[in-house]
Amino acid sequence: MIRAYKFLVRPTVGQAAALGEMLRDHCSLYNGALQERRDAYRHTSKTTIRYGQQSTQLKDIRAFDPERQGRWSFSSQQATLRRLDKAFQAFFRRIKAGDKPGYPRFRSGKRFDTVDFPKDGDGCRWDSTLHDPVTRVRLQGVGHVKVHQHRPVVGKVKTISVKREGRRWYVILTAEQTAPGPLPATGSAVGIDMGIANFLADSNGEFVANPRHGQKAAAKLEEAQQTLSRCKRGSKRRRKAGATVATLHRKVRRQRLDHAHKTALDLVREHDVIAHEDLKIRNMRRAPAPKPDPDQPGSFLPNGASAKAGLNRGITDAGWGVFLAILAAKAEGAGREVIAVDPRNTSRTCPECGHVSAENRPTQETFHCVSCDYQAHADTVGALNVLRAGLVRREAAPA
To answer: For labelling, which of 56, 63, 130, 225 has a CA lying 20 to 30 Å from the CA of 287?
Structure first.
């Protein structure tokens, strides 16, 4: 299995400047390759240029501009061209699927923050020895950079990436390692119901509170963003204000990830089978369609957009997608089984008699079956139905 490790890098002043130049030159290569594709399609009878053609030009580009392009790893530049090629492949795939295409766009220096090295030892070298207390990563054109390695790397390092987040630099490794042994069986199965009032409720009647990290930081973020908006573009004061906003967002993201990891780990340790709703989060966050006023052309009727915006903020703040991805990864490594089920009517179906009705849920938290008078918390009922649907799907799956 492949596992990723992310470590803080502590470059010197000169190394930090070289890392910034590396990002700048790779960004220039990315934008130049994108411009070449655009020009070929527009002015040369809709000619399509692919990765192979652009990769063969790298040797000439490096010879023509040895100061900016020739000093960096050839493989990392190929990886940058592959990134552009993947963007075009995704663009055409969305066109075929009928989705919003999203044509690849040029990257500014602020939007290009990662350089990939496809192979350890080719333009980069992960140097972690037992006899050296300081871990370093060697990068072509930069040198040996100190790394704050807070945990050991297990397995053989395959790829290395360097990423800039604000004023900090990180190195991201992918290591190939043998799959760990499964955790001891507990004989327990659980269903979970994701929510906003509570982060999740399980079929055992327990709840995990929603920490609402984004909501707690909203006041500080609003103040910092207002300060940023009042600063003159290009000024030193605006750069400092932008760094403050980015720092607050990074803190919220780290808090959200920490909560997701701890919650997923508890579930994986306690249960062999975990069933959850197969949520289409992107569809849930869509803005409501406008309602034209038939009596007044050019005017629109209220469509609940304000309330939907608040709900969308709550969904984003909860971070369901990140949590479910982490849960699946941890379950795979622990030998647990995760089952996604159809979420329709899970909170409207009575677990006692099976009656399905919207009237069974008179309020957000209350479930009261109009057929058999069964009462419980609505989220717990949803988790029970998710668990039953998951077990049915598990038994119906072919061996």
So the answer is: 225
The pLDDT of residue 288 is above 90: no
- Predicted local distance difference test score (pLDDT) of residue 376: 92
Nearest C-alpha neighbor of 188 from the set 210, 174, 204, 175: 204
Residue 287 has which token pair?
């803005």
H or E segment at 119?
none
Distance CA 272, CA 182 (A): 10
Number of CB atoms found within 10 A of residue 147's CB: 22
The two structure tokens encoding residue 315:
């969904």
182: Cβ–Cβ under 8 A, 6 or more apart, which residues? 334, 335, 336
Q: DSSP characters for 144-165?
A: EEEEE--SPPPSEEEEEEEEEE
| Residue 203 · residue 188 · CB < 8 Å | no
33-61 residue pLDDT tens: 999 999 998 887 778 889 999 999 999 99
Query: What would the pLDDT profile of 183-226 be if each residue is shown by its tens digit?
Result: 899 999 999 999 999 999 999 999 999 999 999 999 999 999 99
User: Is 296 a residue whose pLDDT tops 60?
Assistant: yes
Q: How far apart are CA 200 and CA 271, in angstroms?
A: 15
CB atoms inside a 10 Å sphere around CB 216:
13
Q: pLDDT by residue (tens digit) across 342-351?
A: 999 998 999 9
Task: Report CA-CA distances (Å) from 310 to 197, 306, 379.
Answer: 13, 7, 20
Contact call for residues 7 and 168 (beta carbons, < 8 A): no
Token pair in block for residue 189: 């199965």
Which pLDDT belongs to residue 259?
96
Beta strands in the chain, from DSSP E residues, in sequence order:
2-10, 114-117, 124-127, 135-139, 143-148, 156-165, 168-176, 189-194, 198-202, 207-209, 273-277, 291-292, 300-301, 337-341, 366-368, 375-377
Share of the chain above pLDDT 90, in %: 71
DSSP summary character for residue 358: G
